[in-house]
Amino acid sequence: MTDWAPNSLNNSDSVETKSTAAPASKVLSVEALNHQIRQLIEGELPSVWVQGEVSNFKAHSSGHFYFSLKDSKSQIRAVMFRGNNGRLKFKPHDGMEVIVRGRVTVYEPRGDYQITCEMMEPVGAGALQKAFEQLKAKLKTEGLFEAAKKRPIPAFPRHVAIVTSPTGAAIRDIINILNRRNKTLQVTLVPTNVQGESAAPQILQAFTTAIALPAVDVVIIGRGGGSIEDLWAFNDERLARAIAASPVPVISAVGHEIDFTIADFVADLRAPTPSAAAELVVKSSEEVTQKLQLLDRLLSISIQKQIRTDMHRWKAITGRLVDPKRKLQDLIQKADDLQSRLSLSILRYFEKRRMALSFTTQKLLRPDQLITRNRKHIELLQTRLQSRFQSAFEARQFRIKKAMSQLDGLSPLRVVERGYSLTTKGSTIIKDAAQVSVKDEITIYLMKGQIHAQVVRTEQKESPWTLKKN
Questions:
Q1: 3-state DSSP: the chain helix, strand, coil percent, rounded to 5?
Q2: Which of 176, 338, 398, 460 has its CA 20 to 30 A from that of 249?
Q3: Residue 13 forms part of a structural domain
Q4: Contacts by 26-34 with C-beta closer than 8 Å and gap 24+?
């Protein structure tokens, strides 16, 4: 190992008295020094486990993760390259408590020491559970779990597709129940691997094939129970989105009743077990027959009740009917009575008119007297009309002159005559700079003439003529 010559760096007296040119073997470049520090650290700490809180997390566009690990008293820089973070089942974020395994090394260009992480696990919850919760929250935010988007399961499907393992117990249970409940049902098995690293893409491919089958009414996707690792293929995001976008109703039957996967939340119906899915999708022939028999009995009872009700109504209406001959006699008698009353009313009316005419004839004046009286009345009315018209005319004239005087005082032209101008944009008077924009055409009216201009700049400043309130 090369000597660092500490005496030559720390003893100021010796620096002053010795030659300024140190031996070449004793002087290190910054690069060489950082390289030696890196060799020392990596040699002493080949691999370590560290627990801390993630801070300053950044997912670089290159795919690498850069962050710091800290506790209450200290922190260290950390990096997790794409090849390692691609295996994570969750995405780290600031504030997350994690345990990492990695190598302590030195980034020589900056002289920073850091830990290069090879593995990471969240503290308190497993990585798979953390990934499950993150994906569940993401898809829920996007609305993939909303009940309004769920498609109804057909009451009497004719063709059912099943996406599961061809060798598992789940498919045997499903087929046995379907055959027992409805022997005419068409069942298509779309085989796939349901466990392991390659299961998720295989399930997605099988599901895509299932929904594309001709005249398929419903798809059952699932498997038997297991650990979260065994069921993990049904938490795949691409599969979840495919189920949500499926044109065919989907029943998720993954694991046991206590097992939940993302597929359960996005499917149109979740069955607690594969056997329960088979019972949900196909109604028992015996149950349907019993229900039809019950409906037949209810229909017969309802028809009989309606017939009895109609008979009672018919009898009641029949009892209220009157003999037509008797009804006609009543109408004839009523017509005679009305005719008599009408004749009497006509005689009384003419008698009353005759008396009124006689009385009016007695009151009539000679034509010359009537003309004279009416002429005097007309002259009086003309005099009154002229007097009222003259008074009304003078009052209206006075009001008009007063209004014209006030209007002339408020006219913008009076303001212009005093040296001000009037600015308009089209037919709108500009009162605020916010009413116009740059390059707007405006017209400025002066006492003499007009100016057509274009706005080059506006300023929102308080007008010097604006009255300030105390």
A1: 50, 20, 30
A2: 176
A3: no
A4: 28/2, 28/4, 30/111, 31/108, 34/106, 34/108, 34/111
Residue at 459: amino acid letter: E
Tell me: do 91 and 152 sit in the same domain. Answer: no
| d(C-alpha 195, C-alpha 261), whole Å | 14
Range of the domain at 446: 416-454
Mean pLDDT computed over 113-141: 81
- The DSSP symbol for 47 reads -
Please give the mean pLDDT across all residues of the chain: 82
Give the count of domains, the chain: 3
Phi, psi of 6 (to 5 degrees): -65, -35
Using CA atoms of 181, 183, 184, 185 in order, give the dihedral in degrees to the nearest 10.
Answer: 60
Residues 117 and 177 placed together within one structural domain of the fold: no
Query: Is residue 269 within 8 Å of residue 153, measured between CB atoms?
Result: yes
- Is-above-0.85 flag for pTM? no
CATH number at residue 74: 2.40.50.140
The answer to whether the beta carbons of residues 120 and 99 sit under 8 Å apart is yes
pLDDT tens digits for range 324-352: 777 787 788 888 888 888 988 998 998 88
Residues in contact with 305: Cβ distance below 8 Å, sequence separation at least 6, in sequence order: none
Distance CA 278, CA 179 (A): 10
Q: How big is the chain by its Cα radius of gyration, in Å? A: 51
Residues contacting 178, CB < 8 A, separation 6+? 160, 185, 187, 278, 281, 282
Which of 62, 121, 67 has its CA nearest to residue 90? 121
